[in-house]
Design brief:
alpha+beta, Aminopeptidase, 2 domains, 7-stranded mixed sheet, 6-stranded mixed sheet, about 35% helix, disordered N terminus
Length: about 300
């Protein structure tokens, strides 16, 4: 995703932000009560700006230069794009703090006409339907299934546990992100989520025969859905196909707990083709997002005159 303007004010709140799912699918993570509880634990203000059949969770935080900044992730969520657009139009009309929206089904033209300026191009996410193990295994791509078989045939240990405060998974992924210069979800958010939602932050890890971590995934449960928050695999784990085993065990366990969908986050075949193919190899469905948009009172008149070709 390449920025179209310098407005990167709320990016730390948007790691892996995904697109809107309309009912009957479960609420996305960023519109869930569990996410709201985690944000409040971090000292952020959360309010509901929807109404009726539309849910619109707005998170406020302090940002340098602008003061308060409002953010709507994967929302609003409503029965149709018109109902969602009405909520965004009402929010835009309130003025006040700058508002960043990670839009879903609301058309680009509607957002532009409401004074929203595009700040980030649309991305694509991978949504994996969860089912019985036999059905999910049948949906795996052949290479993915072969790697899973290879990992299952070795003497690897799979553990499922709660997220720990000093978790190797968080520190290892943070170190790799610094080395490779990419953005990763903040550890503070994951820990706050775990503390605010008992049992909802689960780590599935794969250990070598001598007990060394090879791979791990952190999944956050919310309602009847779950979201992949972060994952890490060592070089030895790659050779052992340990990440295939870790994710598979997470899929099976989540389905047993009554989850219907696992959100695997963004897929970028241009910059990270290996990770994209890994996620889609599970049988996940690619879904395009609506992009990220900024509403700022001083910018709104200019945004309304932006050619639609540049807004889409």
């Amino acid at each position: 995703m390449r920025p179209l303007t310098p407005a990167k004010l709320a990016l730390w709140l948007m790691p892996g932000m995904t697109s809107v799912q309309t009912p009957p699918l479960p609420l996305p993570l960023q519109q869930s009560p569990e996410f709201a509880a985690a944000c409040r634990a971090l000292g952020l203000t959360v309010r509901q700006a929807g109404g009726g059949a539309v849910r619109c969770q707005v998170i406020a935080r302090r940002a340098r230069l602008v003061g308060r900044l409002d953010y709507v992730g994967r929302g609003p969520v409503g029965p149709d794009a018109d109902a969602e657009a009405e909520v965004l139009h009402r929010l835009a009309g309130l003025g006040g703090a700058p508002l960043i929206v990670n839009a879903g089904t609301v058309p680009a033209g509607t957002l532009r006409d409401s004074g929203f300026w595009p700040v980030m191009t649309a991305a694509t996410v991978a949504l994996l339907p969860l089912n019985r193990p036999a059905a999910m295994r049948a949906g795996l791509h052949q290479k993915w299934r072969n790697r899973l078989h290879r990992a299952e045939a070795t003497r690897l240990t799979v553990l499922r546990r709660l997220l720990a405060r000093e978790d190797w998974l968080l520190s290892a992924e943070a170190a790799q992100a610094r080395a490779r210069r990419y953005r990763t979800p903040p550890a503070a958010l994951a820990l706050a989520y775990a503390n605010a939602n008992r049992g909802a932050a689960q780590v599935v890890e794969v250990l070598s025969p001598i007990g060394a971590p090879l791979a791990g995934v952190l999944v956050l449960r919310h309602g009847t859905a779950a979201t992949w928050q972060t994952g890490h695999v060592t070089e030895a784990g790659k050779r052992a196909c340990a990440m295939n085993l870790a994710l598979w065990e997470a899929m099976v366990w989540l389905a047993e707990q009554g989850c219907h969908v696992l959100d695997l986050g963004t897929v970028n075949t241009q910059d990270t083709p290996g990770l994209a193919h890994f996620k889609l190899g599970t049988g996940a469905q690619a879904q395009r997002l609506g992009g990220s948009w900024l509403h700022w009172r001083g910018l709104a008149p200019l945004a309304r005159r932006l050619p639609l070709a540049l807004a889409a």
